[in-house]
Amino acid sequence: MGPESTITQRYIALLRAINVGGHTVKMDHLRKLFEELEFSSIETFIASGNVIFDSPEENTGDLEKRIASYLKEALGYEVATFIRSASEITEIVNYQPFPAEELAAEGTSLYVAFLAALPGDERQQKLMGYRSSVDDFHIHGREVYWLCRTKMSESLFSGALLEKTLGMSATMRNSTTVKKLALKYGQVSPR
To answer: Which of 3, 15, 48, 130 is 20 to 30 A from 21, alpha carbon to alpha carbon?
Structure first.
C-alpha cells in the first residue's frame, strides 16, 4: 500500500422517508447523490432507503449530518440518516433480544429501529410502558428491537409512536431485511 492509499470502511446508510409517504426516489438517483458526496463502491439494497458505500471518514455522526444535509438540499425534504458499519450490522443481527421460541412463534415479527443515540432513562421507561401481550421492546445500544406478535397494522404501536415516545427520529427495518444486509455486506455466515 503506497503512501497515497486511503483506507476506507464499508458503511450502511439507513435512510428514513425514502419511498414512503409520497416521497419517491429512484435507486439510481439515490446512488448518484451518494456519488456526488464522493463515496465509493455505492450500492442500494431494496428500495426502502438502504445505501451501502465506502468512505475513509471514521466519524459516523459527521457522515450522518453530511448525508442528511445533502439529501435535504437535493430532495427538498428531511431525510433522517442513520449510519452503521458493516461490523455493527453484524453485531445487530447476532444480538438476541428475545428468546428464540418467541421469535419463531407464528405471526410474530421482529423489527429493528435505528436511532442516532441511546435514549435517556426516562424515555426508555416510557417506551417500556407500551409493552403488552402484543408488543414487546428491548433497547440495546442505538437500536430498539420491537417484537410484534401480530401484524404490524394490527398493533396499537407504530414507528411514529416510537419516535414520539423516544423524542427522536428513527428508521425501522424488519429483522429479515437487516439479516439480508448483514449476509451481503457484513461478516455473517448463513445459519
So the answer is: 130
